[in-house]
Design a protein that fits this description.
This protein is mostly helical and 518 residues long. The chain has 18 helices and nine strands.
Length: 518
């Protein structure tokens, strides 16, 4: 049941003169190499943009961040003899991030996202900058980037400074499984440190690459979680003996949210003809009957979220913008990450609601007042040992904790804008914080899903072993899913620590072990 979509692409992801898909960013994170567009037209376009800036410097034209200081210091002119030192100072003084470091896959996604933006040709960088960044990705030289320190405008300045620093041979990186200095890694990979031209430090740092890369990774995880929660709901419905007609096409035809309709159709197909002649309840509780209405919100939102993430991914989002064709230089605010902030805040809200749904489904399964004859806490113990065993009792408590934390983190980050940098950056997006929150919520909800998957499989196996309201005519795909889940988390007959089992299920979810709904 291995899902091949979780593996790297077989061919390199080409960057330059084409739109990049968010799935391609995720593929780079998983190990797919990148390749720059090799066409002469692409190279010429990049060189034209760099020449526009070189001509401005030569003519004495004032350009923000090229001949002036940064941020509120835009009124300070920098003397020509020291212009070459300006980008290095920018890179160095932004080296103040704190917190845990992004892992290597996330860092590679960040680098690929920044590379794609610079390859649009509106940043005024030389081809050497693109080549250096692409080479770091190819060699998997991953800068150690602290997670904390960006307000999402003027772009992801502090975290991206660690990418720029690695390119010039400063700070630390992960390389070949070890942490070393960037200078050591560049030497080992036979790469020379890059010398930055006046705008190139700003071009590397002043953009939305961190939040956008995180949003790409979050979107892919949320899509799989949407599919998995749908399958878990069907398993819980089967275990409880719920009526599949709660998900009938005729019922959902009258409420035309397409994602919601798709979720219902999948559950209906998964449950098959598993109902008993007389369902115990004419109407199941909301966490079962209304599951398509909860999961469907995420299903319907993923489309516009993908649109907005990919528009940001394929944008020139630094400042100033350099038009290589007209020679015009525009001073603007494309580094502002408002769209990504809204996507991330919305995503974590929809995903946290899924945790709440699964938490309620698990509560039904473990409680003898609601589980239609299943043993208390889904204990698989024999009658003689039932008093000693407590099955999934503690798991249900843990699920409640993870759900509560996910719900707490659903507070939107974008409404907490702070005025910074002498009120120059007086309205900021908080997009990177929102995206980090979204990833944390996803981790929590994947833990909830892992626990509920184990519990649903336990409940279905109890029915199968004991013949207690055992489901009839269960579709083959559900039997296969049941057996495979039990291979990862074995049937709980006698109490045992379940941490290792749950971690294995979380890893299986992360690896997209199960191919769900094509």
């Amino acid at each position: 049941m291995r899902n091949l979509a979780s593996y790297p692409f077989e061919t390199p992801v080409t960057v330059g003169a084409r739109r990049l898909a968010l799935r391609e960013v995720c593929a780079v994170a998983r190990g797919t190499p990148v390749a720059l567009d090799s066409s002469p037209a692409f190279q010429q376009r990049i060189r034209r943009g760099a020449k526009v800036l070189a001509d401005c410097i030569a003519s004495g034209t004032q350009v923000y961040g090229v001949t002036t200081g940064y941020g509120d210091s835009c009124t300070v002119s920098v003397p020509t003899p020291v212009l070459q030192q300006l980008p290095v100072h920018l890179v160095r003084y932004h080296g103040c991030g704190l917190g845990a470091h992004f892992d290597e896959p996330t860092t590679l996604a960040i680098m690929a996202t920044r590379l794609n933006s610079l390859a649009m040709g509106f940043s005024g960088v030389r081809p050497e900058v693109l080549t250096q960044l692409a080479s770091l990705i190819q060699q998997r030289i991953a800068p150690l980037i602290p997670e904390e320190g960006s307000v999402g405008a003027s772009g992801d300045l502090t975290p991206l400074s660690y990418v720029a620093a690695a390119m010039i041979g400063e700070r630390e990186v992960r390389y070949q499984g070890k942490v070393c200095t960037a200078a050591q890694a560049l030497h080992a990979a036979q790469l020379a440190p890059l010398t930055l031209m006046p705008k190139e430090g700003l071009a590397l740092m002043n953009g939305t690459a961190v939040m956008t890369a995180l949003a790409c990774l979050a979107w892919e995880r949320a899509e799989y979680l949407m599919h998995l929660t749908t399958r878990i709901t069907a398993m819980v419905g089967i275990a409880l003996g719920s009526d599949p007609k709660h998900f009938a096409p005729g019922l959902f035809a009258v409420k035309p949210h397409s994602g919601q309709q798709q979720i219902a159709a999948w559950i209906f197909a998964d449950m098959g003809a598993t109902s008993h002649d007389s369902p115990l309840r004419i109407q199941e509780r909301y966490s079962i009957r209304c599951a398509p209405h909860v999961i469907g919100v995420l299903a319907d939102a993923l489309g516009w979220m993908q649109r907005d993430i990919e528009n940001e991914l394929n944008s020139a989002n630094d400042n100033p913008i350099v038009d290589p064709e007209s020679g015009e230089i525009y001073h603007g605010g494309h580094f502002y990450g408002g769209h990504i902030a809204f996507v991330a805040d919305s995503l974590k809200n929809a995903v946290a609601n899924i945790a709440d749904l699964l938490d309620r489904q698990l509560a039904l399964l473990v409680d003898t007042r609601f589980n239609n004859g299943l043993p208390s806490n889904l204990s698989g113990a024999s009658e003689a040992r039932a008093s000693l065993n407590h099955g999934f009792k503690a798991v249900q408590i843990a699920v409640s904790a993870w759900t509560a934390e996910a719900l707490k983190l659903s507070m939107p980050a974008s409404v907490f804008s702070r005025s910074t940098e002498c009120h120059n950056q007086d309205k900021v997006s908080m997009g990177t914080i929102a995206a980090r929150d979204a990833l944390r919520v996803l981790t929590l909800v994947e833990q909830v899903a892992a626990a509920c998957l184990a519990a649903a499989a336990q409940a279905m196996e109890i029915r199968r072993r004991r013949g207690n309201r055992a489901p009839r005519h269960m579709p083959a795909v559900m039997l296969e899913m049941l057996d495979d889940v039990l291979d990862v988390c074995a049937y709980v007959e006698e109490d045992r620590p379940l941490e290792a089992d749950l971690r294995q299920l979380c890893a299986a979810i992360g690896a997209r072990r199960w191919t769900l709904y094509g």
